[in-house]
Amino acid sequence: MSRHPFDPAELGDGDDRVPAEELLAIARELEDLARAESPVPAAAFPARVSAAISAEATPTPPRTFLMAVGALRFGDAWRALGANARVVAGSGRVVPVGLRFQAAALLLALAVITVGGAGVVTVGSAALVQALRTPPQPAPTLTIAPSLPPASVAPSGPTRSPSASESPEASGSPEPSESAEPGETESNLETADPQDSERPEASADAHGGSDGSGDGGAGSGSSGGSGRTPRPSGTPGASDDGHGND
Amino acid sequence: MDDRSLVEAVTSGDRDAFEAIVEREATAVFRTCYRILGRVGDAEDAAQESFVIAYRSLGTFRGEGSLAGWLARIATRQALRRLGQRRATEPLDVPGTPASNLAGGPDPLGAAIAAERQRVIRSAVASLGEPYREVVALRFFAELSLNEIAESTGRPIGTVKTHLHRGLARLRERLGPDGLA
Question: Do B34 and A42 touch (CB under 8 A)?
Fold first, then answer.
């Protein structure tokens, strides 16, 4: 009656405390139990199962893989991965194109994740090795650092502040006033055309009369020489005013 | 249609292929559950649950063993799990229970003793530790051969034999020399 009647040869190495005859007796008893209890399911049972299945999504290999990963069943996930590979390879019956595309996309995504993860691990381990090699050097520099600041801060402070203050002086607020000095151009104004001679003369004046004109220009503009107010845009006009004053 | 073709058809979206699997394997799965649980209603519930689980995880079936063995393993696990959750009660008048078989029989006393014996054996098998419980249940309740057990569990056949030997030895110790624990 049993599909596979029990054979004593099926018993491998095991517990020798129980005689083989007793093991055989219990095996026969289990067989009798199975033989006595062999009912048939109700006729509606397959329909009941079909109704229960109808609410389930199609168990495609990609879906099965994701479900297994979600349930942390990594053995099932591994087997589902093999099923995906078989779907992509196209072994067996004809596989729908959509399903094959899904399986291929899943395998590709996993490959990218694997390669990316391997890269991160490699870079991370390299950085870790680098970090483990370097610690002896930073330690002494850190101990020296507290002794240096008091000595080095004092000289460095003053040296920097003048250099910073010099830069605005050198940036030349006087220079535009020198170039625009109308007082120095008086001798040349007699020759006439200020427009032609303006630029070269201004440069000559800048060289020749920088000692007095720089300060004088600024001072005259504010104190009394209203006719000499330097205006870069109107240098010819200013020179005319200078004549008028004379 | 062979197992592999059926599985590939189901995973490609063919639900009729799974209905064919259910039609083919329903009796074996139901009997396995009934032999472990001893009640028709519980056995049907466990068998239905087994088919649903099988449908969901059909994508993990590698086709190295038989589909029947794969399903039997799922059914055995489900039935044993359900048996472990069951309360220690035995309804007296539910069809399919040992008690209901006593009424009208030629030898009520003998039937009662047999029913009690079956209950004790079932409990003793359920109380075995893994992997012995699974191997004994697959061998005698699901009626799989050692090769089928080895294929469905992924264990070497020598290991399956050893598990069967030790499982029967422990079962004998629990049942005692005269059979009753």
Answer: no
